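Closing statement on the 4'-deoxy-4'-aminopyridoxal-5'-phosphate sub-project.
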Amino acid sequence: MGVTWHRTAFVDDADATVSVRAKAFNYGLGCFGGIRAYWSEPQRQLFVFRLQDHVQRLVESARILGLESPHPAERIAEIVLELLRRNERCEDTYIRPLLYVDSDELSPTLTDVPVALSVFCLPLGRYFAHESIHCCVSSWRRVADNAIPARAKPTAAYLNSALARAEARRNGFDEAILLTDAGDVSEGSAEHLFLCRRGQLASPPSTADNLEGITRRSIIEIARAEPLGVDFVERRISRTELYVADEVFLCGTGAEVTPVSRIDHRRIGDGTVGRVTRAIAERVHAVTRGADERFRHWLAPVWQEARGAVASASTKA
Ligand code: PMP
């Protein structure tokens, strides 16, 4: 049994509950984050990837909904680190902070309501079972930012993701790619999309009704930096361009870098993991595990000193 931050304190997981009457449950009035922490065996350290950016986005998501977070981003970051310590985490971990309307009154209101923070964590390995996946273009359109803010991570927007993913799975695909109402490529159900064509990497902007992605932003920097030095452009992408791309991959905190080998039964490139995708995936792996000094500032160490190092030093002595 682990512990969860719930409203004002750390409690046993089993005690982190909300009422069936909760507005957050009835209407999805809240927003959330998804953060990964990576275990580095050589350094015997757990690194939270881009913690400050994740908590900042969470607070901004709440602001988009017109909710005031009960804590500033810095305090939420402290709670995340303390949560990992209290749960003795020494393996790859997913962290889920939620900011939600903490009221059991009937109507769907976002004004004059208490807002609570809960944060739980769980072990998480690969998000997709296969090394590369087969996607469909969904018949569901991505929720428009002016309907349910797609730039943020509102709980309610995940009905859109779940519908698209359910349709994909029922039809034998691994994942769905959603288009905007205007017909441009937006993103996957919980991942951003990149394609590579004629040596240039491209990805749609946030204005294509997709989340302001932290993995996406990281990949753009990593791809442009040496030794990869890949040319990147942010631009509109249409459905048919997916079919003639040399490489396509999805990315996100959960999905990390996931190569796409087929879309709508069409093979992408030669159907194997492309050279650029593989190189980016390898660099991202190194960065997240603390093996690339240039991006070390993206990592927040959980433990004051290497775990187990003190014990082994005293054993040797
Ligand atoms: N799009 C959606 C809809 C998502 O839920 C996620 C996961 N947070 C992503 C993209 C990937 O974003 P990030 O890299 O910030 O996790």
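The domain at 133-293 is CATH 3.20.10.10 (D-amino Acid Aminotransferase; Chain A, domain 2). With this model delivered, the sub-project is considered complete and its resources will be redirected to Aim 3.
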